[in-house]
Specification:
With about 400 residues, this protein is an alpha/beta fold. It contains ten helices and 16 strands. The model has no long low-confidence stretch (mean pLDDT about 95).
Length: about 400
């Protein structure tokens, strides 16, 4: 196997990725992004269907010999974030940025398609490969929307693969969890209603800000003092909004946050304690309090058989020293819905320049990647997909 792609192929990948990076679009509004994907598929003469689950695109390659069907997923949406990088390919859409590597994911998927075509896989291989370009991963459950569209109902997909940029890892390395990969996510909304008044006369008021401050501190004791030390969960309050002036005690305060868990029983236990604590702070401060929990993405569970397959292939492509086993991540991923449907695996792809070291993480306005990862991802997943079909 070639250690790197031909120069013209790599240049094509870089140009694609930089185009995606310059025109980031948010969930379910990836219109130009989808059009660029369709244009590229047309150039490669690959059949596709657009408008799946909103703005999603599904392409399919079929070999002459019969065999199983597998899928590869790439997410399309960007974040509502103003880019601060000073690069020629900086985002041109003000207020939006590909700060989670989705521009790289799409490019790698298109790269795999070209790699398959140029290696004459359709003549020499077997089976079918479905490429899923998915909208709305960043909170919009685009994977669920694509599944609910019905397009996959008659497709006997045996396994689904995906990669995600891991900027903590150097380019050329990968990491994957042996089973649980990503946490389940729930959104928390807490409303505290007290009695407003003058800041100089708090005894005439019921202060929701003080109650909220106590509650935020108390919530952290669930993780530190009630959860078994070897279990993992996160409660983070990201929004605390109240008041209009420095000398006015407000009527209401609103708290919003996120709960991340890896096990259903732990999730249920924490939710019960959240309910108890919200009720308790209401009694303690003489206010009213409501808690609303919106269930988000489920736990992403890697299929152990597919993990073993990835590890075997990656050692051949990247070298054994560059393949790592990892712990679950508390970030959520709607790729979990595809894994629930078919069984799948998420691979963390190292993407920082080892000469510079790790600098900026995902969702940072300074996030960028070592573009050589496009070469690595294309060769790795091309090999992973073809070898899986060959052995199945």
């Amino acid at each position: 196997m070639s250690r790197t792609l031909p120069d013209d192929f790599f240049k094509w990948l870089v140009e694609l990725r930089r185009w995606f990076h310059q025109f980031p679009e948010p969930a379910y509004k990836e219109v130009k992004t989808a059009a660029k994907i369709c244009e590229t598929l047309d150039t490669l003469k690959v059949p596709f269907q657009a408008g799946v689950g909103g703005t999603g695109v599904v392409a399919k390659l079929r070999a002459k010999r019969t065999g199983p069907m597998v899928a590869f997923r790439a997410d399309m949406d960007a974040l509502t974030l103003e880019e601060k990088n000073d690069v020629p390919y900086k985002s041109r859409n003000q207020g939006f940025m590909h700060a989670c590597g989705h521009d790289g994911h799409m490019t790698i998927a298109l790269g795999v398609i070209r790699w398959l075509i140029e290696n004459r896989w359709s003549h020499n291989g077997c089976g079918e490969i479905v490429f899923i370009f998915q909208p709305a991963e960043e909170g919009g459950a685009g994977a669920k929307a694509m599944l609910q569209s019905g397009i996959f109902d008659a497709e006997p997909i045996k396994a689904v693969f995906a990669g995600h940029m891991y900027p903590e890892l150097p380019m050329g390395h990968i990491r994957l969890a042996p089973e649980i990969s990503n946490a389940a996510a729930d959104s928390l909304f807490i409303r505290l209603k007290g009695k407003g008044g003058h800041g100089a006369h708090p005894h005439h008021c019921k202060d929701p800000i003080v109650a909220g401050a106590y509650l935020i501190t108390q919530l952290q004791s669930i993780i530190s003092r009630e959860l078994p030390p070897l279990e993992n969960a996160v409660i983070s309050i990201g929004r605390f909004q109240a008041g209009t002036a420095s000398n006015i005690i407000p009527e209401e305060a609103v708290l919003e946050g996120t709960l991340r868990t890896l096990k259903p029983d732990i999730r249920i236990e924490i939710i019960k304690r959240l309910e108890d604590m919200v009720e308790g702070v209401a009694r303690s401060f003489g206010i009213s309090a409501t808690l609303n929990i919106t269930e988000g993405y489920p736990v992403l569970v890697n299929n152990p058989v597919l993990v073993e397959h990835i590890v075997t292939c990656a050692k051949e492509v990247l070298g054994a020293d560059n393949v790592h086993s990892g712990l679950p991540r508390m970030g959520a991923e709607d790729f979990a819905y595809f894994c629930q449907e078919w069984g799948g695996v998420m691979v963390g792809i190292g993407c920082h320049d080892s000469n510079k070291g790790f600098q900026h993480g995902l969702h940072s306005p300074y996030f960028d990647l070592d573009e050589r990862v496009l070469d690595v991802g294309t060769r790795l997943f091309g090999y992973v997909l073809t070898q899986y079909l060959k052995k199945s």
